[in-house]
Amino acid sequence: MKTTIDLPDEILLKAKVLAAERRTTLKDLMIQGLRLVTQSPAPSGEKQRKAKLRRLLKAMKASNTEPMAPLKREELHDR
User: Could you report how far apart the first and last alpha carbons of the chain are, in Å?
Assistant: First the structure.
């Protein structure tokens, strides 16, 4: 299938140089890159970020969900 992609000049130039160094075509290089990205489930950094977020949310849950009883004036000054 043919398609048109608008790429930044810097990235296109780097891709062309890399394709020449690997003695392949720009098309084959892009196919390899797209296969790599679409076949991997999620970057390890993404998995770590999600795990860290889950731990943070778990830590933020209150261990005591009972409403606090209002303190008397004397109790406030004692603390």
Answer: 74
